[in-house]
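pipeline: protein-struct stage 2 | run 1193 | Hydroxymethylglutaryl-CoA synthase
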Amino acid sequence: MKMFRLFSHTKCFFQAKRALQRPLWPAQFTAVVQRGSFSTTSVRRQTETVPSWPKDVGILAMEVYFPSQYVDQTELEKYDGVDAGKYTVGLGQKQMGFCSAHEDINSLCLTVVQHLVERSQLSWNSIGRLEVGTETIIDKSKAVKTVLMQLFEDSGNTDVEGIDTTNACYGGTASLFNAADWVESSSWDGRYALVVCGDIAVYATGNARPTGGAGAVAMLVGPNAPLTLERGVRGTHMEHVYDFYKPDLASEYPMVDGPLSIQCYFRALDRCYATYRNKIENQWQKAGINKPCTLEDFQFMIFHTPFCKLVQKSLARMVLNDFLASPSANTESGIYKGLQEFRNVKLEETYSSKEVDKAFQKASQELFSQKTQPSLFLSARNGNMYTPSVYGCLASLLAQYSAQQLAGSRIGVFSYGSGLAASMFSLKVSQNYEAGSPLEKLVSSLSDLEVRLNSRKCVAPEKFAEIMKVREDTHHLVNHTPHGSKEDLFPGTWYIEQVDDKNRRKYARKTL
């Protein structure tokens, strides 16, 4: 690989453009995944000093946590008195997971981190960075990450960088980028980074409530990963807008402008896709490959998922982008057949066009079934998890294919957070799918996703409404023990044991 060029310190300011070839990180350190587990230490000292990037930085392991109870969306339609199919067909949702009063953002993250470390047989000392992406704020000062440090106490490891990152549903992606950048930086000490995304998505009674959900995802980041972050091809779009925001710090409920939020989502998708294509095409040109980047270059495409129907519309929108970027697109046959009337439309004028939406959803139906629909398995049954949403889609994808089927593929990822911040990037899947390989271990670790979903308890809409009212009434209540029973929690789940008169929260773990 090419050596990274770092600008040197020079005597004259104008000489700063001259670069010295030298590594940005200590080349004698490299993280290794041990055979059979991630146990003991992650560092091996090597004698070679050839400067290079850490190899294949990306996701080594994943863990998903979702609540132990859910409400059925068909039953919720009846309870809310809306037309049949409004939530199930119109939104594409089947079930919605939700938390009782015993769970908060801290307990969700404690649970998912504990599970990842235990299932991966990690040493707590092998983690050198831990960063949390969340928009579920229960304290304006104390970070969720600091609460997670109690898991490290017995190991004595307090040398753990990272802190919380917040911007609606984008914080998890920012944390993932930060973790990968840390591994590729001069600050890296050879240990793993841990990224935690968690949120509780709840809405006041009304049209938005069925788009809620809850959960957490933890990802282990380091070199030699089976899912590698492709370098240099991120497309990002950010702007100032009030589409979804939470100015009332005393409430869990957001303020939402639904039509505006969907428009912002589509605009961000258009901008990010254009930037991504430009960057990867430039890379290809330098390698002697002259071709446009289209949806066909992704074996899979996953999205942040507020609700599943929006994702289907989003894939159709990427097809629209490809169509408009190809002046010689064949409208007589193939995927663009019959779309000639849309040849000269402008992207910014199509956000609310039912004609464009319908035509391109129809044209992209097969691509959607192949590239995206498998990733919606968790979202359809658990709902919107906010920051973990797109990574729940990644876990769903990995859970439904074998390592051999995934090997060598490119997974496109679109992450969106209101307000707004959005990025498109891609993951390259390792070619090695043999038994015992990092890819095979990662896929195997997620194979129980459906079994775990099926083990949840279905709660009647009336009971669900009662629990939501308790959460609302006790959101910032001091000197209390959470109401209701904790017996329905999954074994191994962390929960709130008590909130004292100074609003200090004490947590305990349900026995396995």
